[in-house]
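Inverse folding, one chain.
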């Protein structure tokens, strides 16, 4: 009998890359081949996630297709053609009842008023299940679609993101919760004293307000964040209520967890009001041999052109074409610089190559398959042992599950792993509430105007 069990339960999110997280997922017979623009597919996987009692589904996004070599991109369709996420989540909302619905909207190529309005609308449409993943864009392809020759540099991106988020939250408070009386008898629809005009004038934005949507059911949709740099962690400590982060060892996860939560009191926030959810990719089988075989099969689907493209992106764009796939990484590759935003992958990949003497092929197999996510391969018991150690060890508050392929990988997780988590009392058997905040155990924010005369 364990005595060091945590009193709370694990939180689970799942990221829906269209056909799955694995770089060759679209080649797998258990994936939906036209997933990116197949609405029925999304309804099916959202309903599966809800059956598995997931807290939230998360849709990543970028405002551009990937740039790269057509030879590789034409064999790697992920994020070349897919739905705009708020539109998609609004359509999934009435097909689900409890599942949280979160999506990325970049602070680099949006205006706060538009973002505040869209997520407030989604929160109303879904009955309080919306979440916004605040990102700063670090990819040139997006800049070119918004009248810029390059993206904002790192510090400026994050300053802009902080001001952006402040304005969005201010706009969500435009109306008091009880502003709309809709009283036919007195002939008054809303109470003038309960409407607030933001009048924001800052370095990056001037926004008068108020917002043309009533205060969201959750007060504010839940704020997610996924940057791990110093500036990223400061932004998270100030605003985020759930954080995605790639973590590969328990010690590193614990250090990240302590670091992030330790920053929150400086912003007047309680560390309980932020859930750390590192990425997790699982390949589960009824036996270990079955799981290993599933993994081997997925890895065998990676085309070398795609493997090289993903690997090259991770090591600062160093062109690996022409090198022997079964030879070592060329020395010159170690001298490169990380692409903006990929410092961690850069360091990981180069240290694997050097310390484990991996060939280029072995390296792309290791990195490209799960695209840098921590991968657990095994039986439900083995996988849950590991998840439990990370949870009880306060390295995480839960996980963001990346299915290797969809729907097959999610079906496996819900059928095999969720029951094991539940049997050990680590995860809910029923939703605690109806809003995303209630399920994540987060308080509903009080309006900044509450109590003012
Ligand atoms: C799980 C996860 C999901 C992410 N989703 C997005 C996304 O949808 N769009 C995006 O532009 N960046 C996304 N990112 C990238 C981060 O938001 C961030 O830009 C990146 O980690 C670099 O930030 P940093 O310099 O603070 O580390 C994601 C990162 C992680 C770990």
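Residues assigned per position:
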């Amino acid at each position: 009998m364990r005595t060091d069990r945590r009193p709370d339960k694990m939180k689970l999110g799942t990221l829906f890359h269209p056909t799955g997280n694995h770089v060759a997922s679209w080649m797998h017979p258990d994936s939906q081949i036209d997933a990116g623009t197949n609405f029925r597919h999304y309804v099916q996987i959202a309903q599966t996630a809800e059956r598995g009692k997931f807290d939230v589904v998360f849709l990543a996004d970028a405002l551009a297709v990937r740039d790269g070599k057509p030879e590789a991109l034409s064999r790697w369709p992920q994020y070349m053609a897919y739905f705009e996420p708020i539109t998609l989540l609004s359509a999934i909302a009435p097909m689900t009842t409890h599942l949280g619905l979160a999506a990325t909207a970049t602070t680099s190529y949006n205006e706060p008023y538009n973002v505040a309005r869209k997520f407030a609308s989604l929160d109303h449409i879904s009955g309080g299940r919306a979440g916004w993943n605040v990102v700063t864009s670090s990819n040139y392809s997006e800049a070119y679609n918004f009248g810029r020759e390059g993206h904002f540099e790192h510090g400026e991106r994050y300053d802009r993101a902080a001001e952006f988020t402040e304005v969005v939250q201010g706009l969500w408070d435009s109306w008091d919760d009880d502003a709309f009386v809709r009283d036919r008898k007195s002939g008054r629809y809303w109470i003038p004293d309960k409407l607030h005009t933001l009048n924001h004038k800052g370095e990056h934005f001037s926004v008068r307000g108020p917002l043309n949507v009533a205060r969201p059911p959750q007060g504010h949709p839940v704020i997610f964040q996924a940057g791990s740099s110093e500036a990223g962690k400061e932004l998270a400590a100030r605003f985020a209520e759930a954080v995605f982060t790639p973590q590969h060892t328990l010690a590193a996860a614990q250090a990240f967890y302590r670091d992030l939560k330790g920053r929150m009191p400086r912003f007047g926030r309680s560390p309980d009001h932020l859930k750390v959810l590192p990425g997790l990719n699982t390949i589960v089988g009824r036996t270990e041999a079955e799981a290993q075989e599933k993994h081997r099969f997925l890895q065998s689907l990676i085309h070398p052109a795609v493997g090289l493209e993903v690997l090259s992106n991770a090591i600062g764009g160093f062109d690996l074409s022409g090198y022997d796939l079964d030879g070592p990484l060329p020395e010159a590759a170690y001298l490169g610089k990380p692409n903006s935003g990929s410092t961690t992958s850069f360091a990981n990949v180069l240290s694997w190559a050097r310390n484990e003497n991996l060939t280029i092929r072995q390296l792309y197999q290791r990195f490209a398959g799960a695209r840098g996510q921590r991968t657990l391969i095994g039986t439900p018991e083995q996988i849950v042992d590991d998840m439990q150690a990370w949870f009880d060890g306060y390295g995480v508050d839960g996980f963001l599950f990346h299915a290797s392929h969809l729907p097959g990988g999610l079906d496996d997780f819900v059928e095999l792993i969720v029951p094991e988590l539940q049997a050990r009392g680590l995860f809910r058997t029923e939703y605690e509430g109806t809003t995303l905040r209630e399920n994540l155990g987060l308080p509903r924010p009080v309006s900044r105007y509450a109590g003012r005369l």
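The mean pLDDT is 94. Residues 142 and 306 are 21 Å apart (CA to CA).
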